Amino acid sequence: MICGLLYLASVATAWPAGAVEPPPVETVQAEGDYRLYDQIITNKFLTSETTLVIIERLTATQLLPNQDGPLTIALFQAQGYFDGLLPADLIREFVVLNQVPVRLEGRFQFGTRYRFVSGGTVEEPEVSLAYPVRAQRPRLVQILPVLDRVQFSRVAYNLRQNQALAYVGNPRPDGSGAGFLVWFRRQGTAWTIYDTEVIWTVRVESESDGGPLLAH
């Protein structure tokens, strides 16, 4: 433990002032969390036409696009999600876990190819093939059915480990999108989606209509 603290102190001292900090090193490692992520993608997003899913590498720390400040219990409860029926310990755990973004790993098993992106940076070159490619003539030469993109929160569990809560956002490249809270319950050893609440939506309108419209 002492060696670890000394190492962290030396890193903090050596890091140049004003430099961009390195990305978080903590990762989501629990296999059970990825099984819940798989359920969300399979049940809420995938279609028979989907050939590629683009996933944000870092987990979300905000529920709303226009959220001011960090996620808090007061902010969470003020929204009255699920008619206020979420257990207090589940809310508390969700808020605590999602203060800092962590990295997702390649442990998804929802049956469709997927690639990670970090913000606007594509991590694997295959993702670029998913976007329309323009030839010299003004026509699209390649279009693949792509789910772009998905961002998850960390999964929170209540004290009895029989309920779970996760956020999933789908901010699309055209500026539209939606965000959802997904409430899971466990029956025996099987987790299933108990309820889902849409907590924000953005619908893109034409310029004559005033541009993007946020509803939540």
Chain-wise SSE layout:
Blueprint: H1 2-14, H2 31-44, E1 52-56, H3 73-78, H4 88-97, E2 113-118, E3 121-122, E4 146-152, E5 156-157, E6 163-171, E7 177-187, E8 190-203, E9 213-215
Parallel strand pairs: 1-2, 1-4
Antiparallel strand pairs: 2-3, 4-6, 5-6, 6-7, 7-8, 8-9
Structural domain count: 1
The largest sheet, given as strand count, sense and whether it forms a barrel, is: 9 strands, mixed
Q: Provide the β-strand percentage band.
A: 25-35%
**Uncertain runs:** 1-20, 126-143, 211-216
Q: Give average pLDDT, whole number.
A: 80
Q: What's the end-to-end separation, in Å? A: 46 Å
Report the strand count. Answer: 9
Category from helices, strands and their pairing: alpha+beta
Give the fraction of residues assigned to helices.
10-25%
Q: Outline, from the CA principal axes?
A: globular
Count of helical stretches: 4
Radius of gyration: 19 Å
How would you spell out the order of helices and strands? HHEHHEEEEEEEE
Explain what you see.
- The model is unreliable at about 1-20, about 125-145 and about 210-215 (pLDDT under 50).
- This protein has one domain.
- Strand 7 and strand 8 form a beta hairpin.
- It starts with a helix and ends with a strand.
- It has 4 helices and 9 strands, in the order ααβααββββββββ.
- Strands 1, 2, 3, 4, 5, 6, 7, 8 and 9 form a 9-stranded mixed beta sheet that branches.
- The chain is α+β, with helices and mostly antiparallel strands and about 220 residues long.
- The protein is globular, with a radius of gyration of 19 Å.
- The protein is about 20% helix and about 25% strand.
